[in-house]
Specification:
Blueprint lengths: L1 H17 L17 H25 L4 H15 L7 H32 L5 H18 L3 H11 L12 H40 L7 H15 L2 H11 L3
C-alpha cells in the first residue's frame, strides 16, 4: 500500500515532467511583473499548481475507481435506503478496493520505473514510459476496442502496433467510457431483483385496497432482508473484482 502511494506521487511528478514545465523559484511578494521573464515565471507557477491539483484525479481515472463508485451508487438507489450507506463511506470503500485491485499493477510500475528513477539509474523520460506501461496494459485489457478506435478515428491517427505506441491522451478517455458502460450494465442488473420486489409489494397493496400506503415503506425492509440473506456485499464485491481483466 505504501509503495502504491509512492507510485501515485511519482506518477504525479512524471506527469508534470511530461508537460515540460520548468519549476521556477517562488516568493510571496505581490506586485506587477517588471519584465517578460517575471510574467513567464508567474504563469509557470500557475500552470504548475494547476497540474498538481489535476494529477491525482488523472491517476484515479486510470484505475477501477470509476466502476466501483458508480456501481455502489446504483446499489444504494436500488435498495432505496436514501443516504445509507453514506456517500463518504461508499467513496472510501471504492478507493480501498481500487488500491486492492491496482496493487499488482502499481508494484510493476514501481519496480520498472519509479525505483530505478529514485536510484538515478534512468532519466525521467524513460522512467515515465516504463512506469505508465503497466497502467496502459491494464487499461487496454479493460477497454472495448470500439471505444479505443473511436478516439483514434477522431484524432485521425493510424492504429498502433504495440501498447507503448498508444498515447495516454487516447487510452484514458477510451478506458473511462468503457468503465462507465460496464458500470451502468452492472447497475442495471442490480436494479432488476429489487424492482421485482417493488412490483410484488405494490401489487399486493393494490389488491388489499391500501393504495394510500407508500409501497416503498413496505418494500424497503424486504429488500434489506433479501440483500442480507444472500450476503449481498460479498456477492457484489466478488463479482466486481472478477469482472476486471
Amino acid at each position: 500500500m505504501i509503495r502504491f502511494f509512492l507510485l501515485l506521487l511519482g506518477m504525479s511528478a512524471f506527469l508534470l515532467a511530461a508537460e515540460s514545465v520548468t519549476i521556477p523559484t517562488m516568493n510571496f511578494e505581490l506586485g506587477s511583473p517588471d519584465t517578460p521573464q517575471q510574467l513567464v515565471s508567474s504563469l509557470n507557477v500557475l500552470v504548475l499548481l494547476t497540474l498538481l491539483f489535476l494529477a491525482p484525479s488523472m491517476i484515479l481515472v486510470m484505475t477501477t475507481f470509476t466502476r466501483f463508485v458508480i456501481v455502489f451508487g446504483f446499489l444504494r438507489q436500488a435498495l432505496g435506503t436514501q443516504q445509507v450507506p453514506p456517500t463518504q463511506l461508499l467513496v472510501m470503500l471504492a478507493m480501498i478496493l481500487t488500491f486492492f485491485v491496482m496493487e499488482p499493477v502499481g508494484q510493476k510500475a514501481y519496480d520498472s520505473g519509479i525505483k530505478p528513477y529514485i536510484a538515478e539509474e534512468i532519466g525521467y523520460e524513460e522512467a515515465f514510459a516504463k512506469s505508465t506501461l503497466p497502467f496502459k496494459n491494464f487499461m487496454i485489457r479493460n477497454t472495448r476496442e470500439k471505444d479505443l478506435a473511436l478516439f483514434f478515428r477522431i484524432r485521425k491517427m493510424q492504429n498502433p502496433t504495440t501498447v507503448a505506441d498508444v498515447p495516454l491522451s487516447i487510452i484514458i478517455p477510451a478506458f473511462v467510457i468503457s468503465e462507465l458502460k460496464t458500470a451502468f450494465e452492472i447497475g442495471f442488473l442490480l436494479f432488476l431483483p429489487f424492482l421485482v420486489i417493488d412490483m410484488v409489494v405494490a401489487s399486493i397493496l393494490m389488491s388489499m385496497g391500501m393504495m394510500m400506503l407508500p409501497p416503498i415503506m413496505i418494500a424497503l425492509p424486504f429488500k434489506i432482508l433479501v440483500f442480507v440473506l444472500i450476503d449481498g456485499w460479498n456477492l457484489i464485491i466478488g463479482n466486481l473484482i472478477a469482472s476486471i481483466k
